[in-house]
Amino acid sequence: MIFVLFYFLKRDPKFLERRAKGTEKVKEQKLIQLINLPVFIAAFIIPGLDRRFGWSDVPVEVIIITDIVILLGYLIIFRVFRENSYASRIIEIDKEQKVISTGLYSIVRHPMYIGVLIMYLPTPLALGSYWGLIPMALLPVTIVFRILNEEKVLSEKLDGYKDYCRKTKYRLIPYIW
């Protein structure tokens, strides 16, 4: 994370400025964040309780492999950030923003969320907990709702987004959705 921070401080400080904005303006996105909050809290607290009470016995090899998978998810997100300087934490359209249709965006419309899923879904395993996977299993559901609403906003407010959707058919998983 420190490498990524220094990379963007040097190459694209405006990106970091946009990522630092934290107040969602879209009502539906606020609701999705509100629903997602207990999922994340549970997905990180349960592994702590699991460790304390010894509910799971995740082999160290699984933990190491999971750490590698999480790193791969983070690298996908880093690649998306390099490709799309407007990849904000909140749904908003900047007056200078353009549709990105190159790199991973030429395959799916929301590659950052693939990275997010790869990074977060296995996190409870990396923390040594099988039980933490239960709340984390809700993450894909909230991401689907986020994507659907995000696409509605982008279609209405970002020039060229509807054409991009016709060209790049899949939202998240090639040949599936």
Describe the protein in words:
With 177 residues, the chain is mainly α. It has a single domain (32-167), classed as Four Helix Bundle (Hemerythrin (Met), subunit A). 64% of the residues lie in helices and 0% in strands. The protein is built from nine helices and no strands. It has helices spanning 2-11, 13-20, 27-53, 60-83, 111-120, 123-126, 133-136, 139-157, 161-167. α1 crosses α2 (13-20), α3 packs antiparallel against α8 and α4 packs antiparallel against α5 (111-120).
Order of helices and strands: HHHHHHHHH
**Helical residue percent band:** 55-70%
Over all CA atoms, what is the radius of gyration?
17 Å
Shape descriptor reads: globular
Main CATH class: Mainly Alpha
Count the beta strands.
Answer: 0
Structural class: mainly alpha
Second rung of CATH, namely the architecture: Up-down Bundle
Largest sheet: none
Summarize the structure.
The chain has 177 residues and is mostly helical. The protein is 64% helix and 0% strand. The longest helix has 27 residues, at 27-53.
Produce the secondary structure layout.
Layout (H helix, E strand, L loop, with lengths): L1 H10 L1 H8 L6 H27 L6 H24 L27 H10 L2 H4 L6 H4 L2 H19 L3 H7 L10
Helix pairs in contact: 1-2, 3-8, 4-5
